[in-house]
Amino acid sequence: MLKPTLPKSYKSSQEVAAPKVSNGDAPFWETKTLAEMNFEEWESLCDGCGLCCLNKLQDEDTDEIAYTCVVCSYSDVTTGRCKDYDNRNTNVPTCVQLTAELASEFHWLPTTCAYRLLAAGAALPSWHPLITGDPKSVQQAKVGLTAIKVVVDNGQLDYEDYLIDAL
Ligand code: SF4
């Protein structure tokens, strides 16, 4: 049986200016662990894809998590960003706050998510804004909420009708 779980993590954030990388220096995401990053660096890892804001269901027997295409009503589906980021935890108490520790445990995060990738020792994708310097490169790469068909949650939907393949 499937039950609602972890509707979203906290990182469908507002855009944050990328920390500066000095010429010749390795960028912080290649030299620091997630736990060593400062707030500005941590925030800049979020590419704003918004995929973590899709509702999910968890199998009560196996704990397996399945994505649905139902997105949080606070998500701006034209940008993938949260419409009320500062108040996300008040608006949606189940909005999970991602931490360095949880990034390595949340295997349900999208495979493109920078937190998941770095926690696993992988590199950032070539379209990541920290690489391109352009936040629009995410949409141009057809990654995120804006690249898939989604349904905005209205509190009346049976999520099991909206299951999608893993992201
Ligand atoms: S899935 Fe990862 S990169 Fe995408 S919005 Fe959520 S935290 Fe940010």
TrEMBL record:
InterPro entries, per the entry: Puta_zinc/iron-chelating_dom, UCP006173
PANTHER family: UPF0260 PROTEIN YCGN
Protein name: UPF0260 protein
Lineage: Bacteria, Pseudomonadati, Pseudomonadota, Gammaproteobacteria, Thiotrichales
